[in-house]
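Human: Respectfully, please carefully check these tokens:
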Amino acid sequence: MDKKTIEQNIVSKKTDEGYYVEVFNDGKLVWTDTFKTEEELNWFIGCCNNAKELGLVNVSQDEARKLLENNELGVWVFYREFWGHRFAKIYNLDLLFPEDNKHGFEVQFVNRDGDADAKNVPTIDEAIQVLKDAENGKI
């Protein structure tokens, strides 16, 4: 997030089934999740905090779309992947490699086999669809 720092707050609650989490960016609810164990919850919060230390904030898929439409170089995005991963990245190749005449967007995510994967697609809509397909175990 180059242009503006987003203030991210995480609220967690113990439930009968484990833990429930709400993530707020600038006071707006952008993500909810559940975790069975405190260890999983702490891993998630630690990843969010590590990103913050690097000056990065994970955003919702809707926020990612808006940021990319406004020429953000790249965004970290929440998504629900089968193996438990919750973070993906989308880069604007036009801005990342302008000298190479690369166009479109690169989505970095975890595929249904649990392996790190990347797909290059021509539009923001297709980049968001990659995440939806990964969430649904299609890729």
Notes: The longest strand covers residues 28-35. The chain has a mean pLDDT of 91.
